[in-house]
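User: Can you predict the 3D structure for this chain?
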Amino acid sequence: MDKKLLLTFEAYSQIKHDQPYFYFVKSKDQILYFFGSNHTKDINNPQFKQLNDKWQEFLHETVGKKSVVFYEGNIKTDEEIPLEKFIEKYGESGVMVFWANQAKVKLIRPEMKEEESIIELLKFFSKEEVFYFYMIRAIGQWQRMKVRKNFDDFINFNLNRYKNLFNLSSFDFSFENFKKINGKILGKEFNLEDMSLPRVSSPMFYDTKINEIARTLTTIRNVYMLNQIEKYWLDGYNIFIIFGGSHAVMQEAAIKSLI
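Assistant: Here is the predicted structure, written as structure tokens:
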């Protein structure tokens, strides 16, 4: 695989593509399906029928062969709940975990541990910047929740979580420090009602250095994922991938270089 073919964000930003975005590669003995999803937990979204159609195709093509499903996100893969609950909790990746379990297909989350990602980011950015990125990203996710958890409980959980993951005894992992860093980076006081906060941690914008962190993290994730794809492909596995559409597009040329 030629990983130099992985698209940069600058190149990706010039591309308009369908959502969902699908492609496959096929050799004499193996196939790889990549379903680049539009993240949704709406059970009525037509994407789920498209996903099921491709999954059934994949199962038909790989009967009796080694196969694996690569999925995105933190999912309890052994959770015994109905399909509708998997969609409600985990969206399209949850559906694939559910179907893969039914078909007894191996499941792999092709991502490094979060503490490993943090170590990588700290090679390029300051402790304050990386801490702020993870916290503002979490707050943006809280804003988008249909049923919001108590904010104080939510923020304290994340502060403690990242204190453990960063493992830096000399750093102030408090909400007060987060708000001070927010002032430095955005030049204004933190406002929970500001619905533009998800933009701060998005890789698609170029407002602050925090957007650059998001792009760097996406590249780290993509490279790690390509390594996992190559590993399982060379080991003779057929691979079905369910990941966000941007990952599918950015990785396409590199993945197609497998054959």
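The chain has a mean pLDDT of 93. The chain is about 55% helix and 10% strand.
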